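Read as chain and fold; for instance:
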Amino acid sequence: MQIEDLIFEDDARGYFENMSDLDAFIVAGVDDGEIYYGCAVNPDIDPGREFGALGWLAQLVTRIEDLGFDEAMKADAWQHRSDGRWQLWARAVDLPPQD
């Protein structure tokens, strides 16, 4: 999966309202045997973190393609939604340096 192949929501601001610490959101589901994805990157994050968020989204889609839908949902601990789809949110975290 290439980053440029991801389909993004046109107006992502609503997804991140009152959640400004989150960087990205992805939802996935299966309809008539076809896997579909919806992605959003927080338009207010620092531009330096945007590329990392895009890479995270591409990695998740690639894992679904490699592992299969059901196995990837378990492996990455996706959250099952009441509408039958699955979702994950991402937040960048600065870890202390290793000595």
User: Anything to note?
Assistant: DSSP finds two helices and four strands in the chain. The CA atoms of residues 28 and 37 lie 4 Å apart.
